[in-house]
Amino acid sequence: MEASCSLLRSVSCRAFEEEQKLRKQEIVSRILKEEAKEEKRKRQHPPAKARVPRTLRNKTWSYISDFCEGKTASYPLENDTVEYPDPARLLKAISSESIQGDPEATSEEETLAVPEIPGLWNEDYKPYQVPKEDVDRKPVGGTKMDKDVLARTMAQLRSAVVHRQVVSGREFKGRPFNSKPELILFKDFDIGKVYKKKITLINATYTINYCKLVGVDDHLRDFIHVDFDPPGPMSAGMSCKVLVTFKPMINKDLEGNVSFLAQTGGFSVPLKCSTKKCSLSLDRELIDFGSYMVGETTSRIITLTNVGGLGTKFQFLPASEPHTMDDSQVGSVLKMSSLFTSEDKSLYETVVPSFSEHQFEGRESSPVDTQSQKGSERLDGKDQDRGRPAESPLVFEVALKQGTHLTMAGQPGQRRSHHGWRDCQPLQTSGVNVGCRDRWSLLLGGDKFNKLEELRNGGPAAFTTQTQERMHTTLGEPEGGNATINVASEAQMEIRLGEITEGEIGAFSSTRVAIIFTPLIPGETRAKFKVVFSNAQCPALYFRATGMAVDVPVWVPKPNVDLKICVYDRLYQDSVLVHTRSKVALRLRFEVCRELRGHIELLPETGYIQALSSYSVQLKFLPRLSLPEDAGKYFDKESRILEAPMTIWVADQIKPVGFTVHAIVTTSDLEVSPSELDFGYCTIYEAIKTEVSLYNHSLLPQEFGFVGLPKFVDIQPNDGFGTILPLETLQLDVIFQPTKAKEYSFELICKSEINRCFKLSCRAVAVHPPLELSHYQIKFAATALYSTSVATLYVVTSQLSVNSLTRSVPRMGLEDTSLVGPASFEFLLPPDSPITISPSVGTVLPGKKCLVQVAFRPVLPEELIRQEALRTLNKNMEAESFRKDTATQRKDRQRQSLFTIRLHNQDQSFRVSTPHTLDLQKQELKASYDEDQTAQAALVRAFQGKFDKFVVPCVVATGDIKDRKRLEPLSFSPHNTLYLELWCPAVAPSVMVTSDRGKTICNFGDVAVGHCSIKKVSIQNISAEDLSVEFSVLNPNGPFLLRNPSGQLHAGETQVLVLSFSPHDSILAQETLDIITKRGTLTLTLVGTGVASTITCSIEGDVLNMGYVIARESVSSSFKLHNSSRLPVEFSVRLDSLSSAGAERRQQLPRFLASPLASAAQRTEVVGTQNHGGQSVFSVVPVHGVLEPGRAQEFTVTFSPDHESLYFSDRLQVVLFKKKISHQILLKGAAREHGMFVEGGDPLDVPVESLAVTPAVDSEHREASSRPAPLSPEAEEMKPILVTLDYVQFDTDTPAPPATRELRVGCIRTTQLSPKKTVEFSLDSLPSLQHKGFSIEPSRGSVERGQTKTISISWVPPADFDPDHPLMVSALLQLRGDVKETYKVIFIAQVVT
């Protein structure tokens, strides 16, 4: 398949190329024909005026035609004085100048550009007529109206499909399905192949979702096919596979989306198809060959890398060499040449000189230079138009190796024949005329031109035959006795490309090309190359190469001798190696510059170097302290850098060989600061530490050490030894600890590694105080927070006698000793320290001692606890404020479309008032005790340990504190002060609370009276040993109880303490529970409040009547329960019909059968008629839950009877906390088979149905009853209704009010379809009833669905009524709806006195 495709592509490409060639030939032939006609017309009609100059197009095409035919004759452009340049440069110049041409140039009268498609401007243009058979045809895809209708229909369908997804009160928003991978990428595809990729769609919503494929974008339907089998409902996190097939038919990048539709909205997966492309790069942009001798050859490798999927042909060329174009490029040039229709002379004169510039241009001419040259040539053209002669000299440019541009002038006729400098015109550089000799000196460089002069004038023998041969490669044969110079690119000759310069680079491959450097003439050589590609989309790549050629007989390989960093007055030596390429021995003389002859020496001063060998000279450098003044300009005092030039004189050679000695000269001084130390007064029981700094002035690291230290002095760190880095300052501690009372004066000596000494003078006065401490340092054990550690020490007097010969006596330095007697002391504690000393003040008699206790109790600072509490409160308040702001903004955005102006005002007031409110809240923010406890627990839990060191001064005075006066202080001497050092490590407690964020306050909150609340507190032993645990006793009559006390807590173990709170009254209770271990006590505070629950119901009378319902239909009603207490109440709802007691009750006989007195109690049954199908008649939701404080819960009761009955009833009970019955609600309802009912009158049956089920009326009877044929009352089933009226007679003289009763006729609302929407009723025998005293209003009427109508019945005894005999009459009440029902209403009237 691939072979056939490639064959077809090759055949099509060949056909396309042939077609292009025929097209080009046709265009050229048409142009030539038009040219011939124009010439013939001009010959037949010669112009009367002067000859019109030829147009630019005529001149250009005449040159192209001659060049294609192989003619080499020169065609003059103007006055036949200028030759035509190279065609490639012509095309390049035309292409560049076509863009920069004069915008005001006028076009020719005739044009050869013929459009392929006729335009409206043609005279013979005929507008296209639509065929009649296509007039009524609709466009592809339908009309715009059809598309709009289709779009609206699809939007409506999708809106019906898309639904909001809300789970647990959270609405899902975002992308419903995630795709892996996120991008469907087909990279580097080939036309004709088929590519397939699978993606996975993962349901990212909260619950079940669906996914449906909508399709791909319209521009991708011809290439992309998606196979997707909808998996149906997908749970959250589930995935499905989608297969995407790509069959490319065009070589073009494609981008689009694959669209899907989910239940929560649409989404799409991006798709991208990329063609094969070339991505080419070079591994370097500069090749530096370094220095090489003339005649040597070296090479460097440059790598061309293609990281794309498409290969291409490449070619390495010098940057100035034009690229060989293929047929397609020629076609583009021919097409471009057709744009040149202007006859502006200035344009032509601008283009032609640029040809000469490009023809003689160097290899490193830049586009900027070219633009400047073109601008100057335009000026020359304008000057020529003003009257300059036609044979003005041509200006061409030569690019030197150093990158400077040089313009040379010469006659056009002399350019090809005379190249010597004797016949050339004066050179103009920067406005200065330079002769030919100077011009070629600038052109070739000073050294090369000197060699060239020596060659012409028979120079010295130093020019070998090889050098002459190299020069002949750049010099032509002499003409007329003068040497000719070929102005060629020397850089191209010295730096050239290797054998492989072109080829083809495949996809994801690289190729290596060699760049060869063969220096010919000493000096620096630079060259610029480019890499061009056959793929037009690949830009050319450029790189540069540079090299240095040397041709000196004697040279130093290391022209820079680096001695690194040197120190004054130290000797440094190095050897300098000298090489020669000469074939004879040479005498060398080594010379040091005059300023440094006292510091640098070269030995020997004179020597002979043999042919083609090397010579070594010894360099000695001994910098003196006078070097900065002696060296002068060769030494930089700020950077301390010395650059000393050295010279090697070679016999019979004018130019010497030089090299430079580099060194950084530095000092070796060390500075001790301060230079003198005064320790002052110091007791013999203490040590004084003072810091000194040691600074290194040198740029080198130095080793140092303090030697010969006395016994009472110590230097740290490392005992005063170490290494100091350059320009570094070290801090050293000098510790002085005297052994007896006297005056000290001594010196400390610091020596460096080069045996230099630096002194430090010290002095001090030692004191022997009258009192001393048994311990001057106490190291407490690790103490837990809020625990106490105690240590003891003694204050002892050492003054027993004044004889200094037997023992040391108290005194200061060399002063007199103090008298023997009592001495007093006082410890001065630092403020806010966790240290307690008892006693802190006391007196010690001679030969006695005093016991002192030092207690350490680490606690957290109150300020730290308060800050933590405030930080926590601020954080919570900010979170609450942010939540409220977010909710308010969300509501504002929802109402913005309706109330824009009002919302704007409200939003401004809200924004103004909110910061003020927050500021007030922050000002009034105060942490309560509970919040402080929470913050303290958090800090204790996060406590990582702390180590504090306290130095407590103990002042000493002579005398007893009892003898002093009340306000008179003792005479304490500051020099007799003793110091007690305390090491106080604080750690976290061994047992801590790990639950509820470490709070030690267990708050049960509000608990209903009679109920029990349980809380669990987790404690953990964070120590490394097992602990025995004891608990304090709680109040046995109180509401708190520890249910699981434990006696052991292992290391690292966590135990859960179960605490309960059972309030008996509405009170606030609080107790403390101590958890006691040998390492400390942890106190838990138990708090709780007893609250009585209060629930109210919205139903008055505790009866909920559901009314009438069509059998097998349902109706719902609701009521509310409101929690008016302060705590949430747990509730549950149950029905008596579903309870076990209800089932037992249904097994017993009805009350009217079981008891002779049941007639009075037969209406008191709670659970009435139930459904035959077993399903409950009444149902309620919710059945359980929690009522929050101050909130109401709505309950929905549904009445669903499955047969006809008037006595459906049940009882609903609301139970709180699964114990207490709060409310009992009686549920009642009635059901009918048809949508009509009559209620009222006296009951004639019992509320309990018979066990025998009344058979339903068969379908035939129903059909007969629904027919419109009239039926006699006797044939219909009549239902009796008893209406009893009691006329109350209060007094025989005054008439009493009539006795009244009511009947209600109703039409039940139903969802069933019925031909009649109303119920009609009528009561017959109305005249007979009126005759007997009855008044009925209304006697007939109609009732709408869901409505009832009342029939009022009143009775007044007629005149002939016998009070002893009650009146009983009957009438028929007929109801007509979907069926016809007849009721026999029996009226019984009597007079009651």
UniProtKB/TrEMBL annotation:
Which Gene3D superfamilies does the UniProt entry name for this protein? Immunoglobulins (2.60.40.10)
Q: What region holds the CFAP74 fourth Ig-like domain?
A: 673-765
According to the entry, every stretch annotated as the Abnormal spindle-like microcephaly-associated protein ASH domain falls at 998-1078
One short Pfam name that applies is: Ig_CFAP74_1st
Residue ranges of domain CFAP74 second Ig-like in the record: 280-398, 468-552
- Primary location class: cytoplasm
The chain positions of domain CFAP74 third Ig-like read: 554-666
Query: Ranges of Basic and acidic residues compositional bias?
Result: 375-389
Please indicate which superkingdom the organism of origin belongs to: Eukaryota
Q: Where in the cell is it found?
A: Cytoplasm
Q: Which InterPro entries match?
A: ASH, Ig-CFAP74_2nd, Ig-CFAP74_3rd, Ig-CFAP74_4th, Ig-like_fold
Keyword Cytoplasm tagged: yes
> Disordered: where is this region?
358-389
Listed A to Z, the keywords are: Cytoplasm
Name this protein carries in UniProt: Uncharacterized protein KIAA1751
